[in-house]
Amino acid sequence: MKTFEELGVAAPILRAIQEMDYEAPMPVQEEVIPFLLGEDNDVIALAQTGTGKTAAFGLPLLQKIEVNQYHPQALILCPTRELCLQIVDDLNDYSKYIENLKVLPVYGGSSIESQIKMLKRGVHVVVATPGRLLDLMNRKTVDLSRVRSVILDEADEMLNMGFTESINAILAEVPASRNMLLFSATMPQGIASITKKYMNNPKEIVIGNKNEGNKNIKHVYYMV
Ligand code: AMP
User: What would the pLDDT profile of 73-99 be if each residue is shown by its tens digit?
Assistant: First the structure.
């Protein structure tokens, strides 16, 4: 098993994750981190929550940010406000020793004015639910023209929640040259069509078994 350092993770991030007691990379991290650090490659990762996927995409993404360029360089789309805030918390922890790196959560139900204010001041990473991001795009308050990495987290959940059209509208506004990483716990048809439309020769990584629930979760139902 490799260390984070051997996977190519840089010093300021290493220091932060060591303080968080991340001793060794989890399997999804071992596969995804060197791949994303290597070149601007596309990845489809079938991995459930709890597998360490946030660090798998977060560490290489943060490492590639040019901090002196104050415009969105990475965009993470996720289905819910809770996941959005959780991702932002994790990215803030990982980038603790990268000075001035700004991560902005964008989700519905919170003040759009304060999100617009933060965007005006300049951010590097936007973590967003699709509906609110589209709202900001329609108001011309967010510039996605220099985004280099797009992450779709819990992509199957976003499709279940009816975000397919919004995702298509958002992806139409980011440069075609961006790399893209899609995380999903299952692989329904809708995901296959997104990957076909937007991804270039993606590497497919399967952590655990395809279309299977997490073993730690007990499923119960009642007939009514
Ligand atoms: P995630 O699947 O991204 O929600 O991560 C699940 C949990 O594992 C989170 O609490 C992370 O902080 C933690 N975690 C992620 N990577 C590691 C690692 N390499 N070592 C220990 N804990 C980790």
Answer: 999 999 999 999 999 999 999 999 999
| Secondary structure of residue 141 in the 3-state scheme | coil
Atom in ligand 1 nearest the alpha carbon of residue 47 = 2
* CA–centroid distance, residue 5 to ligand 1 (Å): 17
Residue 19 is encoded by which pair of tokens?
């303080």
Does the CB atom of residue 14 touch ligand 1 within 6 A? no
Are the C-beta atoms of residues 112 and 136 closer than 8 Å to each other?
yes
Q: Would the CB of 183 count as within 6 Å of ligand 1?
A: no
25: left (phi over 0), alpha (psi -120 to 50) or beta: beta
Ligand 1 atom, smallest distance to 90 CA: 12
Q: Distance (Å, rounded) from C-alpha 183 to C-alpha 205?
A: 10
pTM: 0.92
